[in-house]
# Entry
Amino acid sequence: MYTHEDLARLQSQSLKMQSWIRQQTFSPENTKRLRRFSSWEVSELIFGINQSTFRGRLAADPSLPGGEVEPDGRQRWFSLEEINELRRRMKVNRKSLLPSRPAGKRAFRAAVANFKGGAGKSTVALHLAHAAALDGYRVLLVDFDPQATLSHSMGLNDVAEDYTVWGIMARDLIRETDRMNAVAVGAASGTTLPQRSIPAAIRDLGLAELRHQDFIKPTAWPTIDIIPSCANAAFVEFASAQYRHLNPEWSFFAAVSRYLDQLGDDDYDLVIFDCPPAIGYQSMNAVFAADMLYIPSGPGYWEYDSTTSFIGQLAEALEDLAHGFDKTFPAGKVSLPKAFTDIRFLMTRYEPGNDLHRAMFEAFRKVFGDHVSEHPIEMTRAVEQSGRFLSSVYEIDYREMTRETWRRARASFDRAYEEFKGHVLASWDKI
# Structure
């Protein structure tokens, strides 16, 4: 017979192995580092200009960042900081290389969500974030998934649960309860409102005193920050049920939205959520804070079936919230019923030569119409390798494989990102 003690022992054995795995995955110091990018990548793949034009600009203006030159002098390699300085200072055909962003708008928020584990949620969120960063955008990632795959892929491993989405929700419970208790008399009826009590076991955690920035961690990418997750945050579903009992008027589903509303409008350009494979307190916070819903799905029938179940149950959950909280929801930037600027379905692990995959892609398009992304994520050896080493295709040095294999994988994600970016820009003015 096995008990919780046996599970704890197995976890302890696994934790001992983690340090070795990190050394194989990242650097010997267990720290993930962002590689440099060749002048070929910077010119043709990032800036979209001819390589000779790029070299000519560098030669004409010695004050521009010149990168690091290989010993044989044939190639220059640039850091992302240098790439962004070049982006700010260079123009091509009198056009800025800075990415488009509507004036006076806060960061756009996209939730990557579905029921099915293995649908590619974390992979999609990771690659969209990295592609956006290379495009010049400032990105905030929010990892809602206790599996913490996205957090690990961004190089964060030793995360305390206080600084995850659970901490944001518990902090919001305390602050919202105190705000409600401060309203002693109902403005309309003149009756005394019920006083809600938060037990010392929650208050004494000190979460209410945490600063807004305490939850946001830097990453190896200078223009990507993350609110990470960790395995210990898995109990958030149980804790949140208790919190709702303590204060039934607490709009639990809006905790993360309220948190993000306190960010400066110009702090970030994009906020990308990686959601858990379930509909619960964390995923409802994600979809409620999101402007756009991005739903990845593999090319199999069961994944199609799971996606259908997901959108159906999500619809029911959002409808229940709209009816249950429509009179108690506090005034603010979020309104009920929840509305998205766009909903998109993205097929992942797609093999264009596979008859079943092509048939399922057509089935998705027949059912969901224009909501299906035109460019699926293709399964290639480089994509498989990026998953094994907790890295995106953009982080892999193309010299580690044939350039054609690397380019094919990158081209698939580039097309998916450009389509994603187009939907974001079309929706940004609606928020």
Observations:
- The first strand starts at residue 37 and ends at 38.
- Residues 403-428 form the longest helix (26 residues).
- The chain has a mean pLDDT of 86.
